[in-house]
């Protein structure tokens, strides 16, 4: 595929709203993109969980632009580094994973990312790689040589290590190895550009140093904006905290979760997780700030936009109708999970666990105390209550979980 160097397209990529910062500079990257050279661009993701989420989509949408210009894009799964655990943002050491767990986690990654990136293109397909291919065969001598490229002083400048030292928490030596191994990925693949969230800046810049030392060339680093709640300043999507909207979420769940987002994050999600034009985004933002009554419709448009990306326009329209049916018209969902219960009477907590929607009695108790449980439309507030089981009983847990006893 011929590399596209069109001035307008290159400028648009460089000034993309997804980008926070470019090393060494925007101007140098612009010149490189205009040169006609085919560049190798990559993103690396550790398989620490089974789902990719909306937070990842910002990087994928940016990578898509590089792919469309004809550059080689690599989707790297950190099946080796995931076994170590990235210390980024962690006040304590991550729990190690086995290689079997990691491979199980990443089984659906290509399909999920493939909703944005084109792995099947005949002209310029995205390439899937695993970093165990080169990291698992590094000899001890190679590792020592790698460690000799970075000082302890450089490592303890990381904010999370500073926090641990301040709180008198231990830092294990293998955690110092993580940035080096992630950096070595860039060396092994001989990349020109790495893309990642701004929380990965330290690791990506270590890789830039290593490429300069090993491969005698420049590696550009592009950090993307993270989905942050502007009110709380907390990450909106986090695998480790189990707080995210998965890219393989079913349409109804995805639509409902987006509709449940707080108002203050609607514009950031529109900006970083969709491809709507900047001019259109500007109008939406103005309307959102100006007219409070417009907000539910704007949020509904966001939900429909995102579900369309991952599940198609038809599925998005069905999800919208279903959401309106349940939350606006106060009717039961079209499809409800059905369970069979032999007992004639059950304690409320036992019943909730039997639905399969609650993991434990303690979680069930918490949901009852939070006034999140209804049976046949009646709010349940006493977790000690004995419930009479009958055919057709409808159990509602939270806003979106329904179960019917058959």
Would you write up a description of this structure?
The mean pLDDT is 93. With 406 residues, the chain is α/β, with parallel strands linked by helices. The strands form three sheets. It has a six-stranded mixed β-sheet, with helices on both faces. The protein has a five-stranded mixed β-sheet with strand order 7-13-12-9-10, with no helix packed on it. The protein has a two-stranded antiparallel ribbon with strand order 8-11. The chain is globular. It has helices at residues 7-14, 26-34, 54-68, 99-105, 109-113, 132-135, 140-147, 152-155, 159-166, 173-189, 201-214, 251-259, 266-273, 278-290, 295-311, 313-328, 348-354, 361-369; strands at residues 19-23, 40-46, 72-78, 127-130, 193-197, 220-224, 337-339, 345-347, 373-375, 378-379, 386-388, 394-397, 401-405. Helix 1 packs antiparallel against helix 2 and helix 13 packs parallel to helix 15. It has three domains: 7-224, Rossmann fold (3-Layer(aba) Sandwich); 251-328, Orthogonal Bundle (Tyrosyl-Transfer RNA Synthetase); 337-405, Structural Genomics Hypothetical 15.5 Kd Protein In mrcA-pckA Intergenic Region, Chain A.
